[in-house]
Amino acid sequence: MVQRLALALGLSLRQSNELLLAAGFAPVWTESAFDAQSLAPIRAGLEFMLTQQEPYPGVVVDRRWNLMQANKGAVAMVAFLVGPLVPGEAVNLADALVAPNVLRPHLKNWTEVVGYFVRSVEADAAADGTTETAALRDRLLGYPDVRETIAGASSQASGTPVLAMHFEKGKTALKLFTTIATLGTPQDITLQELRIECFFPMDAKTKQIFEAWASPRKDA
């Protein structure tokens, strides 16, 4: 009956487990480590998706925007904007986007993007009710100018089909929009909370830049 109620309410697997615990039952949904052997076929499938996304950036993140996988296009873009990723170092894309000293200096429409992004994290925090997501929300809101920017953000449409991200460094400008996908029919909490974010060029110039970065260098 508890499981039927969770299904009728459209609860996530994590929330279903919490409801079962509240009712005095053991949780039924597993939460595997991303590097668990049982998830090897899933990681391989995600790697295939990221490879197909080349030369444009593609990443896999968990519910709290911790980077799990990235393709060469994503690595190239990050290296250009802020320097190369350190192998093995944890990366949180939410912090990188909202903090004052990472991507923000190069994101020309940061005031538009940050409002949309932080509201999505606030929605996640309200939905899952975990202390970890709440801590991420509070950390993002604690960065300089974030609360003021969100409070002063206009609710009017930009006049474009999607809210693109406009990066600029030196004489190089990148205009990108993103898509976010999830796995179908997940039976594990970790997998249900994964997000696959793919970046696509908004103009021919951005397309050419990523294609050039992906092309093998010729000897002079």
What's the structural blueprint in terms of helices and strands?
Elements lengths: L1 H7 L4 H10 L17 H14 L4 E4 L5 E4 L1 H11 L10 H6 L11 H19 L2 H12 L3 H7 L12 E5 L2 E10 L7 H4 L2 E7 L2 H11 L6
Antiparallel strand pairs: 1-2, 1-5, 3-4, 4-5
Give a quick precis of the structure:
This protein starts with a helix and ends in a 6-residue tail after the last helix. The protein is 46% helix and 14% strand.
Describe the structure.
This protein is of the alpha+beta class and 220 residues long. The protein has 2 domains: 1-30, no CATH class; 31-214, Beta-Lactamase, CATH 3.30.450. Helix content is 46%, strand content 14%. The protein contains 10 helices and 5 strands, in the order H-H-H-E-E-H-H-H-H-H-E-E-H-E-H. It has helices at 2-8, 13-22, 40-53, 72-82, 93-98, 110-128, 131-142, 146-152, 189-192, 204-214, and strands at 58-61, 67-70, 165-169, 172-181, 195-201. Strands 2-1-5-4-3 form a 5-stranded antiparallel β-sheet, sandwiched between helices. A hairpin with a 5-residue loop joins strand 1 (58-61) and strand 2 (67-70). Helix 6 (110-128) runs antiparallel to helix 7 (131-142).
Short key terms for the protein model shown above:
Beta-Lactamase; single chain; alpha+beta; 2 domains; globular; 220 residues
